[in-house]
Design brief:
The chain is of the alpha+beta class and about 250 residues long. It folds into two domains: about 170 residues, Jelly Rolls (Sandwich), CATH 2.60.120.10; about 70 residues. About 40% of the residues lie in helices and about 20% in strands. It has eight helices and nine strands. A five-stranded antiparallel beta sheet has the order 1-2-9-4-7, with helices on both faces. A four-stranded antiparallel beta sheet has the order 3-8-5-6. A hairpin with an 8-residue loop joins strand 5 and strand 6. Helix 2 crosses helix 4, helix 5 packs across helix 6 and helix 6 packs antiparallel against helix 7. The longest helix is centred in the middle third of the chain and has 22 residues. The protein is globular and about 60 Å long. The two termini are about 40 Å apart. About 25% of the residues are buried.
Length: about 250
Amino acid sequence: MTSYVSKHAEFYASHPGYSQFQQELRTGGSRSIGLIMAEQSAHDFRDAAVPELVLALGLSIDCPFRWDVGDGWSPVVPARSGGITVCPPNTEIAYEIAGSHKILMLTVPVAQADRLIEEYAGRGVSTLDALTDQIFIGDTVSAWAMQSMWREASRGGPGASLAIDGHLHLLLGRLLQMAGVGSDAAEAALRSRSPCRLRDVRDALKEIYSAQDKREDGATAALDDLCKFSLFEPELPPGDFFGKSWIIRLTA
């Protein structure tokens, strides 16, 4: 288990208000991530700017909530269990929350998050700034990953460390998807508006991957699966296939 201590956790432990709440810190993985489980009552505190990407998952929460990342207060919205917020690095954030709640926070050093996102998407962690000022409800995969990281962090050992690293990759991938970031190869394959068959999109994507010496991944595998459905036989503009793919995903 890593000896890294989250800067956000240090702030929480030293803050005169937050330190009064019940909280537990765990760390793990090879990327120096931190996890904070906290049970809090209503408050209006201001979080310090720290060099970490922070994700917060509501575990038990149902109360009015608003925040200010420096550009004015958000509208008051209902905070719900399962909701996830993304807090950008090096940003002071003020919160007002009107009820008792339990949350799980994940902290990732900005250098680590930046390195991973650059490696896989060719962009920096600032790409995720598009997710600020939102609460994401219903992302059960990300919620499961964060809670799994919390459990693995209590076990320790190389197996738990590897599991935490895997969950971190999954979470960052989900965040990139929510921020609307696709691979350059996929974007190139979908750029045309000329009607075609889905199998033509798949084949074009595979050709681009081959030409750019990229490994085939989940995108090509998903297209292989979707091409089996008669729904995708007619010719359509490439981007329109993805609206239909939701029908398959929801009914499969």
